[in-house]
């Protein structure tokens, strides 16, 4: 174990490991690209759904059941299925990552909307505000802390799962894991896993700090 950790330290600080198309900086940029793009697409899909369900109260079972669906989703199986249908491309990876991120965003958006005091909604309507004004000027600002929690959780899930890009011969930090397994190089496997974990932790800390700063005058929401 000591030798493995020593080899990991040497692998991480090696100058050769930080240069070229297989360097850590390049693989990190690829990993972040996959993760951020998938999360943005998921947010574009999930936020309107969560807002609509929360505002109208219709289709609540969708938001509730999506959480269980997200936990049960066989991500690698979905990648393989789309890969067989579409051929060698990044589409299987992006579809799987988006499908993974959507449930967290929908359920947290719905939870944030339902947490808004009904009396606040009634007061807004009583002042003559139209439905879209109630939604965007009253409900959305109050629900925003939980919505941001959902986005944060989705991004961390996607970062941790984006290693599957290497499963279909693309890049990202998962390249070290899959190449290391193929080469029986435990140091490379451990290095890839540590890098993915570090990226997830750093992003989580950064987003949670930002969230606390933006909503420092509100009670911290629980996801």
UniProtKB/TrEMBL annotation:
Residues 32-211 form the ABC transmembrane type-1 domain. The chain crosses the membrane at residues 34-54, 60-84, 91-111, 158-178, 190-210. It is found in: Cell membrane; Membrane. GO terms for biological process: glycine betaine transport; transmembrane transport. GO terms for cellular component: plasma membrane. It is a multi-pass membrane protein. Keywords: Membrane, Transmembrane, Transmembrane helix, Transport. Coiled coil: none annotated. The keyword Transport applies. Pfam families: BPD_transp_1. PROSITE patterns: ABC_TM1. InterPro entries: ABC_transp_perm/SBD, MetI-like, MetI-like_sf. Its main location: membrane. Belongs to the binding-protein-dependent transport system permease family. This is ABC transporter permease. It comes from Streptomyces filamentosus NRRL 15998.
């Amino acid at each position: 174990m000591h030798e493995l950790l020593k080899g990991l330290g040497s692998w991480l600080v090696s100058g050769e490991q930080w240069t070229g198309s297989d360097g850590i900086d390049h693989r990190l940029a690829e990993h972040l690209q996959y993760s951020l793009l998938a999360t943005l697409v998921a947010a574009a899909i999930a936020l309107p759904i969560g807002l609509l369900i929360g505002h109208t109260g219709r289709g609540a079972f969708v938001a509730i059941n999506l959480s269980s669906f997200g936990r049960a989703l066989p991500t690698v199986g979905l990648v393989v299925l789309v890969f067989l249908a579409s051929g060698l491309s990044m589409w299987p990876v992006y579809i799987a990552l988006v499908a993974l991120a959507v449930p967290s965003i929908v359920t947290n958006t719905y939870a944030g909307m339902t947490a808004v005091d009904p009396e606040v909604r009634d007061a807004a309507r009583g002042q003559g505000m139209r439905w879209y004004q109630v939604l965007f000027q009253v409900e959305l600002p109050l629900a925003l802390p939980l919505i941001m929690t959902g986005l944060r959780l989705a991004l961390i899930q996607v970062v941790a799962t984006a290693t599957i890009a290497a499963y279909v011969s693309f890049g990202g930090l998962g390249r070290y894991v899959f190449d290391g397994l193929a080469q029986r190089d435990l140091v490379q496997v451990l290095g890839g896993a540590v890098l993915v974990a570090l990226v997830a932790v750093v992003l989580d800390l950064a987003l949670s700090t930002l969230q606390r700063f933006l909503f420092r005058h509100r009670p911290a929401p629980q996801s």
